[in-house]
Every structure is written in structure tokens, then in C-alpha cells.
TrEMBL record:
GO MF annotation: an example: sequence-specific DNA binding
Protein name, entry field: AsnC family transcriptional regulator
Keywords, ordered alphabetically: DNA-binding, Transcription, Transcription regulation
Family matches, as InterPro entries: ArsR-like_HTH, AsnC-type_HTH_dom, Dimeric_a/b-barrel, Tscrpt_reg_AsnC-like, Tscrpt_reg_AsnC/Lrp_C, Tscrpt_reg_HTH_AsnC-type_CS, WH-like_DNA-bd_sf, WH_DNA-bd_sf
PROSITE patterns attached to this UniProt entry: HTH_ASNC_1, HTH_ASNC_2
Pfam families in alphabetical order: AsnC_trans_reg (PF01037), HTH_24 (PF13412)
Top-level taxonomic group: Bacteria
A single Gene Ontology CC term: cytosol
Gene3D superfamilies: 3.30.70.920, Winged helix-like DNA-binding domain superfamily/Winged helix DNA-binding domain
Keyword GTP-binding: no
HTH asnC-type domain mapped to chain residues: 8-69
Amino acid sequence: MEKYAMNLDRYDRHLLQILQQEGRISNQELAERIGLSSSPCLRRVRALEDSGVIAGYRAHLDSKQLGLNLMALVHISMDRHTPERFENFETRIEAMPEVLECLLITGQDADYQIKVVVRDMDDYQALLLNKITRIEGVTGVHSSFVLRRVVDKSALPL
């Protein structure tokens, strides 16, 4: 069954824009900023959480402050395009804490693009040789290293 976008009014959109930028804002301040009283504002937030529009809250960490200085985008090719092969790959890659994102893609010579973050080139080599290339079905790996993040956001356009 296809999922349809939830109908959001101007209050919901404004509320979501603020929460994407300031997830720790108090309900009282949020209500004041969108022009509602506290109770209706809280009901809207809870309804957006219950519906799944708000999928969760998380802290945005600075990778460099944690010693994770190397980010790479890795294109991965698979030998066979079968559901079992893809399911095995996705299960294995999801379990790797270094993998920040995994996308099944089209239009490239690769089947997947993953974004990884590690301390340095030695850690990247270990991840690549000891984990990624050992996943059954992986036949090709092409790495690009990120020099600088030009845009780094997760807020969706509303």
C-alpha cells in the first residue's frame, strides 16, 4: 500500500521547521513562536510524533571533536541482483557503526553508496578490507574521500 503525505497546516509546518533546527526547545517557547497556546501546541507535537512525521530526536555530534577525521563515500557493486544478496548486504552493513548512511542507487556503475566516518586512513583500510569486502557478493568498491562538508543539514524542506 502506498503511503501518502500527511496534510499539514501552517502551524504544523512552522512547528516542524522550528523543531528541525531546535529539537530541545521548550513547548512553551515553541507555542509562543508559532502563535498557539501551550496545550494545542503540545497536542500537535504529540500527533506528529504518533503519526510518524516526527520520527525521533537526536543530538548532532561533531565528528572531528570525537577524533573521527576521515569521511568517505563508497560505491559498492554486487555480483548478483537478488533479494537474498541485497538483504544479506544490508543486514551486514547496517551493523557497522562506521556506516552513517547506506543508499541503494541507480544510474551508477554501483548498486549502493555508503557514507562512512573513521579516525584515519588506517581505520578506513581496516573497515574496507576486514569488513566491507568480506560481505558475500561485494565485487567492486570505489572510494571518494570528503575534503570538506559544504552543506551539512538534515532538515527537510517544508
